[in-house]
Structures are given as structure tokens and as C-alpha cells.
Amino acid sequence: TLRSSWSSSSSNAVDLTNPFANTPKANATFVILCRERDIQGILESIQLLESTFNDRPHHRYPYVFLNDDPFSDTFKLRISRAISSTVEFGQVPPEHWDIPPSIDLVKAQKAWDRAKKAGMPYGDSKSYRQMCRFQSGFFFRHPLVLKYKYYWRIEPNVKFFCDLTDFDPFRFMQQNKKVYGFVLALHDIPGTIRTLWIYVRQWYEKNSHLLAPNNMFGFVTNDNGRGYNKCHYWSNFEIADMDFYRSEAYLSFFNHLDQAGGFFYERWGDAPVHSIAASLLLDRSQVHYFDNMGYLHAPIMHCPKPPKANALSPHTGRSRCYCAHEASFTFDDNRQSCMYNYYDVNGWNSTAAREELRN
Ligand code: GDP
Ligand code: MN
């Protein structure tokens, strides 16, 4: 009957058979930088993260919460009640957060006033710039984070659309020796990074011995290094091997940019910094596009294309993904995606990729 063709024959209960019986868990954590007032957005993100992934007994990865202020006991209690695993709360040390003494605050304030007048998002925000610098150069050295190799960055008010009972991005990274994982790639706002490439180029010209031979330079430049094409992985979602950020090469790159002062005189984001570093320092095979993961950070989302999303989960008997792939940002020509660029660099023909990924 029509009805039976529309209803699932399997039980609606989640079948928690461990698909990873022979695969060890990764040494991994979620890292959430936030303020107390982000509690509502954080609980929303966590509910989806838990119910699509982490509450499966074979996952249950720990959390680290970081804040430049101390967290209250109330906040800690609400978070610990919301998760199926364990959590630690840490304060960012002032030397990882405060504006370094080398920064000329008068010059910085003038730049912020100009940026605000020009209508740049977070144009005159000091704390946003401190956050971007922290996420670029320090989160991976926080004492609570140091013991972990892999991390997954979680922000307030994000959504996860796909069931991950039998896909573990951490185990995937570990098994496939991946170092940097993303779901969304787009163009940055030019005004925030006007001089970034000048310093990037200074650094790589002096340190060519540190570049990966088969890297993804072409993801970030269209003219062999004359300029930055503004492509970056959207780092509000990021799954990475933090040993990369702790490496001598990355730290040298970060320090060079930090000394240039652009985190404060402009508004360099951690997304372009991470992305350019990954494109210079990693082998192509170490960068992974998690196209099977559905994700929203307003106003942009990624939803896997139908063949992947349509396969019913053997664990739930339902669709894996609760999102409409047509709404996915990735292959929308009008909205500044960098995925064609990504595929080009990896030897895909853009037109073919376009056809393939639309269908
Ligand atoms: P957007 O996604 O670029 O619009 O910026 P968000 O406001 O989402 O900030 C990025 C991340 O940094 C989020 O996880 C925020 O919770 C966090 N964040 C931003 N500013 C601060 C800050 O001043 N203090 C703390 N503790 N977290 C911050
Ligand atoms: Mn955000």
C-alpha cells in the first residue's frame, strides 16, 4: 500500500551496536571558547552534537570549555548536565589574550574607528580581535587542551544535521592521517586582511624549506603567490590534529604574523591564518573535506548531496541527514564558495565537479 511504502519497517529506536568495536577511540576533544552569556546558543549546539554523535557510547568524547573570564558554578553545572561525557573548564591566561605591549594602541584605535565607519563586521571590537588571535596562536597550548591530539571546534548556535552513529570524524582523521578537516570554504572579507599576504609572503620566502612539497598553495593564490585570493576554510567548524599547530613551522608562521600586528591594526581572522598555513605546510592528502557532515553556522550551511543523505541509517531506520542539500552553500555560484578552487587544486575539472556535485 501507499502507506507501507512511506513507512519504515525497522524499529524507530536507535540501535547502538558499536560499529567501531575494533577501532580505538582517538585522543580527541571538543574545544568551546565562549562567554557565560552564550549559554543558550551553546546548549543548542551541544544538544545536536550529542544527539547526532557524541551520546553514542562508542564516541563520548570529552569537552574543554575556555573563556577569558572564569566560568561560574551555575554555568558549569548546566553544561555538565547537558553532555554525555566529561568536561573541563579553563580560563585563558592573560598572556594568551591580552593585547601584546608591542601594539600601538593609538594606531589600533584609529584603525578600529575607520573599520567601524566602513561598516566592517566587528569593525571596532577589541575582544573579537583578541579572540581571533587566540584562536590563531594559542588555544592548542592551553594546559587543558595540551593533552589532546585532535580537536573539534564548536561554537554557539551551530547546527549538525546528520546522524554520525557510524562515522567518527576523529577516528577518520586518525586512520587516514588527516591533519586539517573542514566543511565550508569561502572568500574572506577583503577589508579585514588587506596586508596579510605581504607578511605571509615574507615568511614563506624566508622559510621555503618548511613548505610541503605537494601542498595546496593554489587554494590560497591564483597567481602563484603574487596575491591572496581570499579563500579560506570556515574555521567555526574545524577538526584538526593540533600537533600541526604546535609544530615549529606553524609557530614560526604565527609569530611572524603576530609581530606584524595585523590581528589588531586590521582584523585578521583565525580562518585565513589556519587556512593559509594548511595550504603551505601540509601535503594535499592531509587536508580533508567532510562533505558527509551537515552543518549550519548562520548564514551558511553545508548539506550532503542526496545519494549520501538518502541512505537510511541502519541504526535508526531513518534518513541520516535532516537538511535540504539545495540550500547548501558550497556549490552556489553566486555566494562566493571556494570549493571549485579546492577541486581545481586537487586536479578536478571545475565544470565536471560542478555537474557531479549538483546531481
Ligand atoms: P563569528 O562566528 O565570527 O560571528 O564570531 P562569534 O561571536 O561566534 O565568536 C567566535 C567564537 O569565539 C565563539 O565560540 C564565541 O563564543 C567566542 N568568542 C568571541 N568573542 C569572545 C570573547 O570575547 N570571549 C570569549 N570567552 N569567547 C569569545
Ligand atoms: Mn560564530
TrEMBL record:
GO molecular function, one term: alpha-1,2-mannosyltransferase activity
Keywords: Signal, Transferase
Superkingdom, taxonomy of origin: Eukaryota
GO terms (BP aspect): cell wall mannoprotein biosynthetic process; protein N-linked glycosylation
InterPro entries documented for this protein: Glyco_trans_15, Nucleotide-diphossugar_trans
One term under GO cellular component: membrane
A Pfam short name: Glyco_transf_15
Residue positions of the active site: E238 (nucleophile)
Family: Belongs to the glycosyltransferase 15 family.
Protein name (Swiss-Prot/TrEMBL): Glycosyltransferase
Organism: Pseudozyma hubeiensis (strain SY62) (Yeast)
